[in-house]
Each structure stands twice: as structure tokens, then as C-alpha cells.
Amino acid sequence: MPFIPHTENDVRDMLQAIGADSIDDLFDEIPAELRSGELKTVPAAMSEMTVDRMMRDRAALDGRPLNFIGAGAYEHYIPSAVWQIATRGEYYTAYTPYQAEASQGTLQLIYEFQSMMTGLTGMEVSNASLYDGASALAEAVLMAVRANRKSKSRRILMPTTVHPAYRSATHAIVHAQDIELLEVPFDPRTGRIDPASLEQWNEEDITALVIPQPNFFGVLEDVDALTAWAESRDIIVIAVVNPLSLALLKPPGEWGATGADIVCGDGQPLGAPLSSGGPYYGLMCSKMKYARQMPGRIVGRTVDADGKPGFVLTLQAREQHIRRSKATSNICTNQGLVVTASTIHMALMGPEGLKRVAAHSWRNTHDLLNRLADAGINTAFDSEHFHEIVIRVGQPAEQVLERMAESGVLGGYALSRDYPDMEDAILLCATETKTPADLERYISALKASL
Amino acid sequence: MSNIPADLRYTNSHEWVRDNGDGTVTVGITDHAQEQLGDLVFVETPEIGNTVEAGDACAVVESVKAASDIYAPLSGEIIEANPDLTDTPELVNSDPYGAGWIFQIRIEDEDALEELHSAEAYEAVIAEEE
Q1: Chain A residue whose CA is closest to B69
Q2: pTM value?
Q3: Is residue B115 domain-resident?
Q4: Is position B1 within any domain?
Q5: In whole angstroms, what is the distance from residue A354 CA to residue A358 CA?
Q6: Which terminal residue of chain B has fewer beta carbons within 10 Å of its beta carbon, N or C?
Q7: Interchain pair B44, A150: CB under 8 A
Q8: Domain range holding B90?
Q9: Which of A149, A150, A323 lies closest to B67 in CB terms?
Q10: pLDDT digits over A24-81, tens only?
């Protein structure tokens, strides 16, 4: 049998067999007014050569701006070897394999990835990745509701310092499942959650608490105090982390007395290019006791009948091909290729390399903060940060950023988009990719735009 | 032919129920059910103190290739869950009516016991399935 999709003859034979005249007939029961009809905004087909030319022309329009925007996706240097190796034929696949055990190399790579993730997060088990950070948080919330058998409320504490896109994606995924997301406000002076503010829920049935580290403002939360509050009430702690920051910060597995229960985040900072917003990948780790509640695939190491080591997809009874409607998630696909690149990136950098990148990023941002202070620009929050900070420019930030962009500097993210009362606030990030001259250029572009 | 003790009650979903005579019952899965599932690798027992309605999914048995819900045969409060199953789920295979019990319920209505199948009726249920 040839491995090609159905031919016109096949289509005709199939239609004949079921007594239909055309494919359109199959959609008869959908009223005409509900059909999309012609997609008028989609242009006619173009040749590869035409598309190639068009994309090059458009790419050139971007120029070569100096980028200080973070807000969830971060510009880091990716060694050339990473994608050179990742795109080898042996690795070049988008997913976990379907004939899993026949693909020992891919399974081993995912196993190594999981081992690196548990190492970074200080957790006991990792899955083979999810789609992205935002959907990983939604899955973590669903997982917490399954895992916390003492809580009946399905109420989740969701701080407003969690990435706004993560919050809205989570809301979209969980709200129809009778799960309530309760907002936890931040202290406007520090830009982080005041642990005392949680006391209003002391007597309530809460299923899980989400803790971002660093938070959306780049600020470091008081993770130990927040975790301790949740631990003493049997509330599941969901950590949302930037995995690169964990090369420096205390891993979530060590927060409070017993650590976070579930850790999620976006893997982009570990070897994935910005690339207009994706594809990235979502990471998820947890305590071993919750492994059966985890979504996604998990690779395990075992021995075969002859005692030889090998890799398998394990705990598959959670998954939809076995557990059907009661599966832990519809997500059994991972981001195979991006995870492959990320695993190679981490292997190449090593723990020391990741630590240096994280430290360099922190130092650059801190330098920029000092230069801004010298220039009379104030930070919004009096708190420790990772590689991102919020400044207040005393006038609408959107316009200031537009003027900076005209001079080729992408000066940051206008927080008014998500926090209407922070109209003059800019969230900015200086990773290891920035030189002292770049930082100086930021200052002069900002000064010229005020 | 699987073992169906005459002194127990049964459900369509292959749980057995033992009347402990003190308002509580012990629940497990039948010999027939464990044969169908094959070697168990994990049993998720219910949380002690939870109240359940008859027909609620309240435990899960997982074999290498399948996972199945265990339903509460009667309404009441979960008062005991077999702690040995965490480390030795295979007890359900080797001794389904004894050491492989799964949980105990303090039942709301003792009369409801009478509505469950007798051994004879359960044998007919299996016969019909096959």
C-alpha cells in the first residue's frame, strides 16, 4: 500500500460507497449561514519563490532593533551547535513517538530532559513537556484539583503578579469546569504578594495557591512564607517559574518546609529563539505522590527481559488511549523538537553555564537600574528582582516606547495593557546579550523620548 | 470458572460487598474482575472520611494496560481504606475477597444491602457478559 493520502479516485470510490455525490453533500446538515464560505482574506496561492521574497522583504522591515522587552519571552544567546545538532535527522521530530519503545534514542533524550528539569526544580518527577507556560499553568490547576482530595471547593488563589496571559489562558481552560480563580492582589509598594494578605482565607476551603517566581514584574516573591501558609492548610502549592532563574534561586522543591507540590513554567529561556512568540514549550514537575495525576507523557528507565537497560513511556494508564474520558488530560503531545533543542542547550551550557547566564542577566538589569537612577528615572518597586524591572516614566508609557522604537530601541513592555492604573510603567529586561554600550543606548533613547 | 462466595453481595460493576453486621460493609472487586484486569500495579483508595453516594466512582484500580473505576456500591461514609494496597496492589489479584479488600463504608441505609445481587444473581450477570 502506498503511503500517500487518498487520491481523487479514492475519494470518488468512498463517496460512491456511502451514496453521496460530493464532499459538500456530507456537510448538508450544517445550515448555510453557519458555514465560513470563501475565506476572502486569505490570498490566492503563491509560489515558493514569491513567498520567500515576500518574507525576506518583511523581515528586513523589522530592522535590527535593540531589544529590552521580556514579559515572558527572553532573548538569550543560543550556541550555534544547539540547533545544528537538534535538526539532525535522528532528532528531527515534533512529538513523542507513537511506536514509543522502537524509538529508544528519542525516549532517552526525553528521559535526560526530565532529569534536567527535576534537577533544576528540585522536584521528584517531570513529564516530557507540554505546549507552553500558560497552558502548563492551566494543566497544573486541573492537576491540583485532582490531587487535593481534602479540598472540595475547587477554588484557586491566583495572584495578579502571575503573567496576565497565563491567567487568561488558565481562566479560559478551567472556568467551564466549575473551578474558581480568586485574585490575590499585590502590594503596590513592593510589587509582590504580601503573605499577610492571604490570612483573609485562613478559614476557607482553598484547593491550591499559585506562586510565581520571579513574578511578572521580575520581582522575587517571598516564596517560603507563601508556601508555609499553604502547607499548614493542606493547600497545594503551584510554582510558576522561569527555569533559567533556578540556576541561581532556591528551587521550588525546597520552598517552605516540604517544597512546592507542582512546578510549571515556560522552557523558552533554555534554548528556544524568540521567534515571534513560539513554538516554545511548557515544563511541568511534581512530587512523586502526585505523578498519577500528571498530564502528558512520562519516560521511565527500566530493564528488559534480559536485564538490559531501556526506556519506556510509563504510567500510561493516566492517558487518554487507556483512561478515555477520565484521562488526566487531553494533552499527551509534547513539544518534541523544542525540548530536543532545549536538552542539547542545557547539556552544552551545563549547570555552571546556566548559572553564569542567569547571573550576567541579573547584573545587566541591575546595572541598567543604577544607570536609570543616575538619570533620575525611578523604579516602581522597592524589592529584589531577577532580570526584569519596572520603571515609572511619569507619562503614558505606550507613547514613550513608540518614540524609543523609532530610534531602534525596543524599550520594554507597557504595563498599562494589563494593569490600567500603571499607565506610566514600563517592564524591561536586560539579558546577558546586552553590552554596557547597549545599556547606555537605552538610557539615551529613553531620555530623548521623555 | 471464577470464585463467587455465597455469603457476599455483588454489583453489576463487579464489586463485592461484605456485611460486617455493625452498620459497616467491606468492599472489594470480584475474582472475575481481577482476572479480567490482569496484574494490578496500582490501587488508588478513597480518602477516609469522604461521604459517597451509591454509584460514585471512589477508587481506581490500574493494571499494566488498563485503569478502571471502582464504584461505591452503597451510600455512606468511607471509614477505612486498605493501607496494604499502596505497596502491594497484587493482593487484589491473589486474594480478592480477603487481603485484597479495598475500602469500608459506614452505610446510611442497611436495607439497601438487600437490593444488591446475591451470588447466584451475580453469576448470571457474568454469564450474560460472556
Answers
A1: A326
A2: 0.89
A3: no
A4: no
A5: 6
A6: C
A7: no
A8: 9-109
A9: A323
A10: 899 989 998 888 777 888 888 999 999 999 999 999 998 899 999 999 999 999 999 9
